[in-house]
Design goal:
The chain has about 375 residues and is of the alpha+beta class. It has three domains: about 180 residues, Beta-Lactamase (2-Layer Sandwich), CATH 3.30.450; about 110 residues, Beta-Lactamase (2-Layer Sandwich); about 70 residues, Winged helix-like DNA-binding domain superfamily/Winged helix DNA-binding domain (Arc Repressor Mutant, subunit A, Orthogonal Bundle). About 45% of the residues lie in helices and about 20% in strands. The chain contains 13 helices and twelve strands. A five-stranded antiparallel beta sheet has the order 2-1-5-4-3, sandwiched between helices. The chain has a five-stranded antiparallel beta sheet with strand order 7-6-12-11-10, sandwiched between helices. Strands 8-9 form a two-stranded antiparallel ribbon. Strand 10 and strand 11 form a beta hairpin. Helix 1 runs antiparallel to helix 2 and helix 10 crosses helix 12.
């Protein structure tokens, strides 16, 4: 084993903190460097009790879920070998008959390792905080035998780098999960819209936003403005709006801030997206009462309150075309609309083209903009406007 090869992987490890897709390449390199059948970088969100794989090599698609089910067991095994946290743990080996750590009749071996042709398990815990933990597991079959001293030394060399990189990754993952959940909500669910001026005063609140605020215990409307019941969240919201209002249009990379509104009585956070007016397709060409910031809210338990009759009356669309437009605004795909309406996807696409032509838009984002800010959302001016 040429130990110099371990130096080749270190830059790749830190590259993965910038590009999360790169972790698969890193794990592949680790597996090949140690002549292992497979390897997996695992992550667990303790607050949500959800385990998942950050990256893997050699795990067939059907085995990944079973691996996730064993994350806690493996993590506890790796931890039990290393009580001195000041020392970086080496790749601990576990296999039937290994110093009594695991027996041939152990549940882990019988139920998981043996059915998947796994005989040797090595790994280390890399991250362990109150909210999450992460580690690496390396797997070999019986024929491959145990890892050599040279292979273990290589793993020892890269573990500190993995630990540092995973800590960085976990912070980005936490933020990205919030952002992804938010964006998924905006794509899939009802959208409320509040426009703020440069002083963080609302100049417009659409009816959907009013309904969402009214139905959520973590928010309330006071004097025509949104306030959060949690004081720290409220301070964060005000600061985010003021900071966003001051963003120069040329700073296109500073586009949005995601905030999750939580409350003990609500199971999942309610997502808010705070974005400059110029940085969003829906609001970029609006010029409304000096608005500088758009705040989007989405609630999975609500449906878009748009009247089919109003759409038919204003744009001369058919009732079925109006229903397609409303379904799209609620985030349903062409296939889902087709299935629910018992029509073909081809028919739904034809109806959508007709809606675009009659309303004068060419993109779904423009159609959503029309539904949010047109005659279907009665404009409500706050006392600040």
């Amino acid at each position: 084993m040429d130990r110099r090869r371990s130096s080749h992987i270190v830059p790749e490890i830190y590259e993965a903190t910038i590009d999360p897709n790169h972790w698969d390449y890193v794990v592949t390199m680790i597996a090949k460097l140690t002549h292992s059948k497979s390897a997996c970088l695992y992550y667990k969100n303790k607050e949500m009790d959800i385990a998942s794989t950050i990256a893997q090599f050699g795990l067939p698609e059907g085995e990944r879920m079973s691996f996730n089910d064993q994350c806690d067991t493996l993590d506890n095994m790796f931890c039990s070998k290393h009580t001195d946290t000041s020392v970086d743990p080496s790749c601990t080996q576990f296999y039937p008959g290994s110093n009594g750590v695991m027996q041939n009749d152990s549940e882990l071996y019988v139920d998981w390792m043996k059915p998947h042709d796994i005989y040797h398990v090595g790994g280390a815990q890399l991250v362990n905080t109150p909210s999450h933990k992460a580690g690496i597991a390396i797997l070999r079959d019986e024929k491959a035998g145990v890892w050599t001293d040279g292979e273990l030394r290589v793993i020892d060399e890269i573990l500190p780098h993995l630990r540092r990189a995973l800590n960085i990754h976990s912070e980005f993952t936490h933020l990205r999960l919030k952002q992804d959940a938010l964006l998924k909500g905006l794509d899939r669910l009802v959208i409320g819209l509040i426009l703020y001026d440069s002083n963080a005063k609302p100049v417009y609140i659409n009816p959907t936003a009013l309904a969402i605020i009214d139905g959520h215990p973590g928010m309330q409307l006071q004097n025509g403005d949104l306030f959060l019941t949690n004081s720290e969240d409220e301070k964060g919201l005000r600061k985010a709006i003021l900071d966003t209002a001051g963003i120069d249009p040329d700073d296109s990379w500073k586009q949005s801030v995601a905030i999750g509104i939580t409350h003990p009585d609500v199971e999942a956070p309610l997502p808010l997206l705070i974005t400059p007016m110029h940085a969003n397709l829906i609001t970029s060409d609006l010029d409304y009462d000096g608005a500088k910031v758009a705040v989007f809210l989405s609630d999975p338990n609500m449906q878009q309150p748009i009247s089919i009759e109003n759409l038919v009356s204003v744009y001369n669309v058919t009732p079925s075309e109006a229903q397609v437009a409303i379904s799209l605004a609620n985030g349903h795909s062409i296939d889902e609309i087709a299935e629910s309406s018992c029509h073909s996807a081809h028919t739904i696409r034809s109806q959508l083209k007709s809606v675009f032509r009659k309303t004068g838009v060419s993109r779904q984002s423009d159609l959503i903009k029309l539904l949010l800010t047109g005659p279907f959302a009665q404009r409500r001016r706050s006392s600040a406007g």
